[in-house]
Design goal:
Number of helices: 7
Distance between the termini: 32 Å
Low-confidence stretches: 35-44
Mean pLDDT: 80
Helix content: 25-40%
Number of strands: 7
Strand order of the largest sheet: 2-3-4-5-1-6-7
């Protein structure tokens, strides 16, 4: 699967892969319609986590390097004054990728993929606990505090996360 991360968790340090109970909690954090189409959750005890929902495949992988773009995202995050501190403290990242990437004009596919990635990222942030410092949403080029991101993930449309209002 080609990597096209939609969300990147910034982490204090690398995390061990979730144990099977944590992976089950991740799956339970998805919407009931997602659970009905869940094909498989493989590698629950190892990185990367790869699984399919409907025709879409998702992958979360632990990288022991900071996110290169995090500094510029923090500089632009006027809504989060502490963003620079979170970025300075992060030593690892957990990108969440999707394939196939929704095509231009496929609004329904893009919204469905974005909602699922948000739920997956929110669930993984919950598993990471205090080690999760922030979440980068790559398509809008925005960096968010974990509590804001998790709260938005519960909404049907998370427009503040998905859409950049900056020029």
């Amino acid at each position: 699967m080609a990597d096209h991360p939609m969300a990147v968790l910034l982490l204090r340090d690398t995390l061990p892969p979730p144990d099977p109970r944590s992976a089950l909690a991740l799956v339970r954090g998805l919407a009931p319609t997602d659970l009905a189409t869940l094909r498989a959750l493989s590698g629950a005890a190892a990185w990367p986590l790869s699984f399919g929902l409907g025709a879409t495949a998702f992958r979360a992988d632990m990288l022991s390097t900071p996110m290169a773009e995090a500094g510029s995202l923090a500089d632009a995050a006027y809504w989060w004054p502490e963003a620079r501190g979170a970025v300075a403290a992060h030593r690892a990242q957990l990108p969440i990728s999707v394939a196939p990437v929704p095509q231009d004009g496929d609004v329904a596919g893009a919204v469905a993929a974005a909602r699922r990635v948000m739920r997956i990222a929110a669930a993984l942030a919950g598993v990471a606990g205090d080690a999760a410092l922030g979440v980068a949403w790559t398509s809008s080029g925005a960096l968010w505090p974990v509590p804001t991101f998790v709260a938005e993930a519960r909404l049907p449309l998370a427009l503040p996360i998905w859409v950049s209002l900056d020029p």
